[in-house]
Amino acid sequence: EAGVAQSPRYKIIEKRQSVAFWCNPISGHATLYWYQQILGQGPKLLIQFQNNGVVDDSQLPKDRFSAERLKGVDSTLKIQPAKLEDSAVYLCASSPLATSGGVWGNEQFFGPGTRLTVL
Amino acid sequence: AQSVTQLDSHVSVSEGTPVLLRCNYSSSYSPSLFWYVQHPNKGLQLLLKYTSAATLVKGINGFEAEFKKSETSFHLTKPSAHMSDAAEYFCVVSDTNFGNEKLTFGTGTRLTIIP
What we know:
The complex is a heterodimer of chains A (119) and B (115). In chain A, 0% of the residues lie in helices and 46% in strands. Chain A contains no helices and 11 strands. In chain A, strands 2, 4, 5, 6, 9, 10 and 11 form a 7-stranded mixed β-sheet that branches. Chain B has 115 residues and is an all-beta fold. Chain B has a single domain (3-114), classed as Immunoglobulins (Immunoglobulin-like, Sandwich). Helices cover 0% and strands 55% of the residues of chain B. Classes of the chains: A mainly beta (119), B mainly beta (115). The A-B interface holds A 3-4, 40-45, 48, 55-56, 91, 93, 95, 99-113 and B 32, 34, 36, 41-46, 49-52, 90, 92, 94, 96, 98-103, 105-108.
């Protein structure tokens, strides 16, 4: 079974530039997540999709970050404009079951991440 | 609000000796608890998970963890460390209130194996 795919793996940009990351989840997985992992910290959830709808984007800095999941499959995460503090690894994950009452302990499968450096 | 505290940012053990990575959690509801491992330049991989079944959970690669509600702990152990165990380990808690599963990660413990 193919895993979660992400591209690019590495990106270096200057502050105030724009950048986009792409994620292809495991086939059939209803739920998709984007995380930000700053060096020395654990991943922090940015946004969660269920199919093509947003479940949770409470920690997404909406003034500069945006994300979409067209057709409930692939997803893109965009930063515009980037700041120095956005330097991090951006992780995409997917899980096989849609969140619903009583469904829990659901494993998330992570991609290799995109390492972003903002200069 | 849910949270996890990983008590050690860095643990070093000799190859063949036991591993103990400590984790305490805080959760308003009955939590799910996970341990994930992250090798350099690789994605996070699930080691094991607790979801209110047996309190002693066995995972991959010989790791296990015990859920202790009275101590709010979920420590990860392995009887004998191998060089390939060197990685970053994350303790994770998930609250499932209202059916919205949200993972909260600890800050991680870097495990170094001494030959």
